[in-house]
Design goal:
The chain has three helices and eight strands. The chain has 177 residues and is of the alpha+beta class.
Length: 177
């Protein structure tokens, strides 16, 4: 958002921040970081984003359980172009060690997560119009499949942490490489 005024207007949108504050049940939210996400057309398995929980990558935040992501669709997002999918109720599972953003075999990964949690692994697609926003908590398991369309899929992820959150020294990202 530092390099583009249009992106900054989206990322720093006060309404998005208020919604995140209400969802987290906190007194306020701060921007943790933002990401521009680009999923190329006809991406095949390389376009898969493995099932993951954002909190697993943010263990250095002391109040990570209250972190919220606003996911903004730049283009219309649907199943054909690889919309984000969430696992309803997964925000109550705690940290799942089988989660990994770079995993490409989503079916094997979902079976491992199901075995590790003892919970059924069923996803819900987040279909959005261009300009639409979905929100998820940092413990929500999510990912996406390939873009089978002939157009790229673009989005912005706005990651927010509660006011007063602090850095926890010595905490890694919860993943061993």
């Amino acid at each position: 958002y530092w390099t583009d005024a249009t992106i900054a207007r989206v990322v720093l949108n006060e309404r998005i921040g208020r919604i995140a504050t209400n969802l987290a049940g906190t007194s306020g939210m701060r921007l943790w970081h933002d990401q521009l996400l680009y999923k190329p057309a006809q991406s095949g398995e390389d376009g898969h984003i493995g099932w993951h929980q954002d909190a697993g990558y943010w263990a250095c935040v002391d109040q990570v359980k209250y972190a919220v992501t606003a996911w903004v669709a730049v283009d219309e997002v649907n199943e054909e172009n690889g919309c984000m999918e969430v696992v309803p109720g997964s925000h109550t599972w705690g940290f799942v060690k089988e989660n990994h953003f770079h995993e490409k075999n989503l079916e094997d990964q979902s079976r491992r997560i199901e075995a590790a949690t003892g919970k059924p692994f069923e996803t819900t697609c987040c279909v959005l119009p261009a300009g639409g926003v979905s929100f998820h908590r940092s413990w929500t398991m999510h990912g996406s499949r390939s873009n089978r369309s002939h157009q790229p899929r673009r989005s912005i992820a706005i990651h927010m942490i509660p006011d007063g959150a602090r850095y926890v020294a010595g905490q890694g990202d919860g993943h061993s490489s």
